[in-house]
Amino acid sequence: MKSFYHPIATISAMSAILCTLASPAIASETWVGRGQITKGEGRGGYVELRLAKNGNNITFYSGPDRGELLRLQRSSGKTSSGNSWQVQKCGTKLCITLRQYKPKSRVIRYLLTRSK
């Protein structure tokens, strides 16, 4: 005899998954600020950065990795473009170091504040 609960359980599980995927990240924080190019082309110049941080996941809204998702492991990670990011909490701010390899090698140090 077939159980009537199996199709209902499957639909419930699928609904839960879809709701989870469709709902916005509740704990996501937006951070903004500027960084100084400390090594390489443009040395001494300033650039802006905007990102969202949700636990160990970072989504870049601007900068060289705009639109990419970075998963941090022990406060660092690499994007698909090969850029290396280090992220640390500095009091109420985020201190970020980017080692960019393409198109040219350079280092940028950012200090970001949480957007309100």
Task: Produce the secondary structure layout.
Blueprint: H1 5-22, E1 29-40, E2 46-54, E3 57-60, E4 69-71, E5 76-78, E6 84-90, E7 93-100, E8 106-114
Antiparallel strand pairs: 1-2, 1-8, 2-3, 3-4, 5-6, 6-7, 7-8
Keywords:
116 residues, 8 strands, globular, alpha+beta
Describe what this molecule looks like in 3D.
It contains one helix and eight strands, in the order H-E-E-E-E-E-E-E-E. The chain is an alpha+beta fold and 116 residues long. It has one domain (27-114): Lipocalin, CATH 2.40.128. It has an eight-stranded antiparallel beta sheet with strand order 4-3-2-1-8-7-6-5, with no helix packed on it. A hairpin with a 5-residue loop joins strand 5 (76-78) and strand 6 (84-90). It is globular, with a radius of gyration of 19 Å. It starts with a helix and ends with a strand. Residues 9-16 and 18-23 have low confidence and may be disordered.
Strand order of the largest sheet: 4-3-2-1-8-7-6-5
Tally of separate domains = 1
Say what the CATH topology is: Lipocalin
Shape: globular
Strand content: over 45%
- The first-level CATH class name: Mainly Beta
Give the fraction of residues assigned to helices.
10-25%
Task: Characterize the largest beta sheet: strand count, sense, and whether it forms a barrel.
Answer: 8 strands, antiparallel
- Are there runs of 5+ residues with pLDDT below 50, and where? 9-16, 18-23
Number of E strands: 8
CATH architecture: Beta Barrel
Order of helices and strands: HEEEEEEEE
If helices are DSSP runs of H or I spanning 4 or more residues, what is the number of helices? 1
Mean pLDDT: 84
State the secondary-structure class: alpha+beta
User: What radius of gyration results from the CA coordinates?
Assistant: 19 Å
Task: Tell me the distance between the termini.
Answer: 58 Å
